[in-house]
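Posting this for the archive.
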Amino acid sequence: MWFERSLIAAIFLLALPLANAEIIVHDDTRQSVRLSAPARRIVSLAPHITENLYAAGAGAFIVGAVDYSDYPEAAKQLPRVGDYARFDPEAILALKPDLLIAWDSGNPDFHLARLKTLGLPLFISRPQKIDDIATSIARFGELAGTRAVAMAAVRAFRARHTELSARYASRPPVRTFYQIWNQPLVTVNGEQLISDVMRVCGAENIFAGLSQLAPTVSVEAVLAANPEAIVASGMDETRPEWLDMWRRWQDLTAVVRGNIFFIPPDIINRNTPRVLDGAQLLCTQLETARSRRPAARINKK
């Protein structure tokens, strides 16, 4: 009897959470981030970080964020510490954070160097592929002690990603020019998140081979590549007027077939679960482009 009671007690103790257990999570630069307890005062230094923290169930623990942290709706009420390119270290310290999460592709190097001198736990975020978003959410859940919520979000995200890829990735490729901005004319290479979204939809990025993540290209280079579709994002929810400049070139395949499309930037430029909303829209647009091919029109008759 004594042995049975002892065994039951031991099992019960093992099942209890280890409140004082150290949390160790590797960030996207493979550095170890150590916390003595789940983070309860988090400062987010990029809009995508804020959104992914909410997805991980850690939104209640964010005490500060940068400008344009506007999703979900609750994020709009968070205290601001500047924007992702110029934030205020003093304002950050005044919030008494127990965890900083920064973006090494967007936060300036000198700001990141300053953060590292503050003596606070610092997690560096660098999601570049679609599945990196899921990984980020899982890690944020570990840091905030919200693993169950985070993993549910991860499973749902990965299931949707798999479903979209299975449906569209093997469709006949569509040679596509993705335009981020007009002056200068900026696109994405094959390593950038948007290019990963394009692959889900069976798009062939005409500038995938360039070395920079967001290279500047010339109009002449686009015309020489003669894409079948042109897709742009711009700055906000409004379709940019400059997208219609391509109509000047009446021989461009994308113009001839009417394949000039727009995707709101927040659902394709941000490394968050909403990128799959952008993927769904892009996949639908490219299906339209496929339907406008001469052979497709003949088959419909």
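The first helix runs from residue 2 to 15. DSSP finds eleven helices and twelve strands in the chain.
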